[in-house]
Design a protein that fits this description.
The protein is built from 9 helices and 8 strands. It has about 210 residues and is an alpha/beta fold. It has one domain: Rossmann fold (3-Layer(aba) Sandwich), CATH 3.40.50.300. Strands 2-3-1-4-8 form a 5-stranded parallel β-sheet, with helices on both faces. A 3-stranded antiparallel β-sheet has the order 6-5-7. α1 crosses α9 and α2 packs across α3. Bound molecules: adenosine-5'-diphosphate (3 copies). The site of one adenosine-5'-diphosphate has 20 residues, from α1, α2 and α3. Its EC number is 2.7.4.3.
Length: about 210
Amino acid sequence: MRIVLVGPPGAGKGTQAAYLAQNLSIPHISTGDLFRANMSQGTDLGKQARAYIDAGQLVPDEVTIGMAKDRMSQSDAVNGFLLDGFPRNVGQAEALDVMLKDEGVKLDAVLDLEVPEDEVVKRIAGRRVCRKDSAHVFHLSYSPPKTEGVCDVCGGELYQRHDDSEETVRTRLEVYHTQTEPIIDYYRSQGLVVTISALGEVADVTARAMDALK
Ligand code: ADP
Ligand code: ADP
Ligand code: ADP
């Protein structure tokens, strides 16, 4: 299956993607995680992306599309993938369409996670991620780690993402509304969008998502 996950920052895309990718036996591809890995390794790509990410703006398409394409052309992604955080504007969605068309394949669904803004703000404020792997995600009150400040999965140190500050979150939400939400209409015209509520327990949301993808 080839699935795109959309939703505002903090909706739970990464959390759900981990379970869905496992259930569906497809790789979870998060452009945010790829950027953070590049930043912590100090690569050129990470250096190019950092100022945009810290400001809550989108990293330019020239950088992002190439990185996403590289990841999608790896061998584990030939039979499907779950895209988390890509595409994030209409230009990226068009580039993805061209890429899929070249390979003679299609998206199966665009899963749209709906969460009210006040809940998103709470989820982001309490989010703590692992320094070793930002796919390992916790929440101070909703899913606290067993030991404070330590990742349950790998023992790495937990920290608050620099772009999860209150000020940057406001910019990211605005960027979501103005640049990312239009892709929902873009995909709706292709009949691909399924919208679910991402409120409630993580496992309940996963069940809802699996049901919607049937
Ligand atoms: P969240 O999970 O809170 O939505 P992500 O980890 O997906 O955040 O993304 C963090 C930041 O990385 C974004 O605010 C943006 O600066 C950058 N980023 C991630 N994916 C993309 C993309 N597809 N296009 C441009 N920038 C991106
Ligand atoms: P996104 O990738 O959309 O930015 P995350 O998956 O990182 O979102 O989730 C944001 C925060 O909300 C994390 O701290 C995560 O632990 C928490 N979270 C995710 N899903 C739920 C849920 N169903 N209920 C409560 N908290 C959640
Ligand atoms: P912080 O609030 O600690 O700066 P960031 O989200 O900005 O957190 O950093 C993401 C990752 O990039 C972390 O693993 C961090 O160690 C690393 N990092 C932080 N600052 C820099 C920098 N100037 N250059 C390269 N990597 C950095």
